[in-house]
């Protein structure tokens, strides 16, 4: 799956900029990244959200333990990969039908919390049990919410394209070709929100998330660490 968002939506993470500046490497524009994903993931489905972003996914080479899905409702768009262990219970909690899958559950729970102040939409993450990663964009508020499960069982990476867009994908090689060293694994148990203060840990909300520049031989230019946890690196 792939989500790409312009500078109108996402403030480019300074840590990823620094990583790319330290070791300059080839990058491509966001439009080329999307085109490459579509060409390499036949059959693929893509959705352009005006000038704000682009979402794309494919069932090609999909793991049976990490199915990918997409849904859109009330101007909320979501890509989801993985499986929720407590989907049945959460369906009941939100009053959803038995046919509602994981991606619809995420949209409905996000929407319910968005419309019920003072709880931030990210508070739903503590109730999701399973292996998952998702990218959700609320067009009505230009809000982005990206999250990875506490065990990091579903791979997720993020980086910066040549034209300053921020991209999220489950395919490291795909992003490497467009983001160069401005690339990092998305930290497990964390979420990114452009309206809720950037990158934070939902597993350990009181712990700060910091970036560490990676060694030259590593594929990614940086890693992110939640204080009190181990550092994740991506090598190839």
Protein architecture, described:
With 236 residues, the chain is an alpha+beta fold. It has a single domain (2-226), classed as Glutamine Phosphoribosylpyrophosphate, subunit 1, domain 1 (4-Layer Sandwich), CATH 3.60.20.10. Helices cover 21% and strands 32% of the residues. It contains five helices and 14 strands. The strands form three sheets. It has a six-stranded antiparallel β-sheet with strand order 2-3-1-9-8-10, with helices on both faces. It has a six-stranded antiparallel β-sheet with strand order 4-5-6-7-11-12, covered by helices on one side. A hairpin with an 8-residue loop joins strand 13 (209-213) and strand 14. Helix 2 runs antiparallel to helix 5 (172-179) and helix 3 runs parallel beside helix 4 (102-114). It is globular, with a radius of gyration of 17 Å. The mean pLDDT is 90. Residues 2-226 form the DUF3700 domain. It comes from Elaeis guineensis var. tenera. Pfam families: DUF3700. This is Aluminum-induced protein.
Quick tags:
single chain, 236 residues, alpha+beta, Glutamine Phosphoribosylpyrophosphate, subunit 1, domain 1, 6-stranded antiparallel sheet, 5 helices, 14 strands
């Amino acid at each position: 799956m792939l989500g790409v968002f312009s500078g109108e939506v996402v403030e480019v993470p300074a840590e990823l900029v620094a990583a790319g500046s330290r070791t300059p490497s080839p990058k491509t524009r966001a439009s080329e990244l999307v085109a490459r994903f579509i060409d390499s993931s036949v059959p693929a489905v893509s959705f352009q959200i005006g000038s704000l972003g682009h979402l794309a996914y494919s069932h090609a080479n999909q793991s049976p333990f990490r199915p990918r899905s997409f849904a859109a409702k009330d101007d909320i768009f979501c890509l989801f990969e993985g499986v929720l262990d407590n989907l049945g219970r959460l369906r009941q909690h939100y009053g959803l039908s038995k046919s509602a899958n994981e991606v619809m559950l995420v949209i409905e729970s996000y929407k319910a919390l968005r419309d019920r102040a003072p709880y931030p939409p990210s508070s739903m993450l503590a109730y999701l049990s399973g292996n998952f990663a998702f990218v959700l964009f609320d067009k009505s508020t230009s809000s982005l919410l990206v999250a990875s499960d506490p065990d990091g069982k579903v791979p997720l990476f993020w980086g910066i394209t040549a034209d300053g867009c921020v991209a999220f994908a489950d395919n490291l090689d795909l992003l490497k070709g467009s983001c160069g060293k401005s690339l990092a694994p998305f930290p497990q148990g964390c979420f990114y929100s452009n309206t809720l203060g950037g990158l934070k840990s939902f597993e350990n909300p009181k712990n700060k998330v910091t970036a560490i520049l990676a060694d030259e031989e590593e594929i990614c230019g940086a890693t992110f660490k939640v204080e009190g946890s181990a550092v994740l690196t991506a090598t190839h």
